[in-house]
Amino acid sequence: MDANEISLDVEYEKRDENGKLEYEGISFVKDEFPVFLKQTISPIYKDEEYNVQMKEVAIDMTGFDSVNLQAVFDTMPKVSNFRIGELVAEKIVESRYNAKFTYNSDRDLKNPNSNNTGADLVGFIEMEDGAVNFLFGEVKTSEEQAAPPGVMYGATGMIDQLVELGTSPDKLKSLVKWIFIKCTVDKDLLVQKYIKEAMQHYVKDRSNVQLIGVLVRDTNPDEKDLKNRYNDLRKKIDGQHNVQLLAVYSNYKMKNGAWEKLI
To answer: What residues form DSSP beta bridges with 233?
Structure first.
């Protein structure tokens, strides 16, 4: 199931006086989320296409057959709800906001039980005027019943992390450098177009960056998840960058490892 084939209902949204989206909450139609996890997210989690390519390179390099190398390239990060949430966020943001994530950062993990650092979402977005800008974001996954959940608060919460992204030039420069290095070795022409245009826009004006926070929930939709948190975020960012929040409601409980079992 491709992300564009998902049936998503808009539960609530908030736009500014010019019609620009500030935040929205969307939900999966009943029974579609588990299918989406199994058909779309699981192959990405396992990085299946890339591992096949690397195994073929290793066969050519070493002379060993596929059986000898299978165990090496079948390794994958530990399955967790928060990582599932990050990949769900990537696919929804790509399909909904004309964004593109070109590199699976799990390939950089030296320990399959460790976590990525920097920002959860690192990619590109095509703006309404056709310009391509860098897109950086944070993702939080929660089954907590409170609205908003605790993952939206505190130093490790979404809002403070987005504020740090939006007000720390050094952190943004590190992310730009990281994705530039990854993209320069990618021969895909579309990737080359994205990195060229985004870098040009960023160097010309450092505010040409889109920030996004995505909250992935298995609870009932509730605008309180985002409303006050967005207002707080907007005040702290103070117009330095475009910023947006999105809540994704799975309509499928994660308890008892239900999500993890589908990967």
So the answer is: none
Taking the CB of residue 250, how many other CB atoms lie within 10 A of it?
24
Task: Look up tokens 């019609």; give the residue.
Answer: 19
The helix or strand, by DSSP H or E, that contains position 131, with its residue range, turns out to be none
From 22-26, 54-58, 127-131, 145-149, the region with the lowest mean pLDDT: 54-58
Rounded distance between C-alpha atoms, residue 106 and residue 96, angstroms: 23
Q: Is 3 a member of any domain?
A: no
Could you tell me if residue 132 is inside a domain? yes
Asked whether residue 44 is domain-assigned, the answer is: yes
User: Which has the minimum average pLDDT: 95-99, 104-108, 253-257?
Assistant: 104-108
Report residue 4's pLDDT band, with 50, 70 and 90 as the boundaries: low
In a domain, 7, yes or no: no
Alpha carbon 28 to its chain centroid, in Å, reads 17
Count of structural domains within the chain: 1
169 phi and psi angles, rounded to 5 deg:
-55, -35
Beta bridge partners of 162: none
Domain residue limits at 25: 20-262
- Among 67-81, 153-167, 187-201, 233-247, the minimum mean pLDDT is found in 67-81
Peptide bond into 43 cis (omega under 30): no
Looking at residue 169, what is its pLDDT? 92
3-state secondary structure 157-207: CHHHHHHHHHHCHHHHHHHHHHHHHHHHCCCCHHHHHHHHHHHHHHHHCCC
Taking only the tens place, the pLDDT of each residue in 170-200 is: 999 999 999 999 998 888 899 999 999 999 9
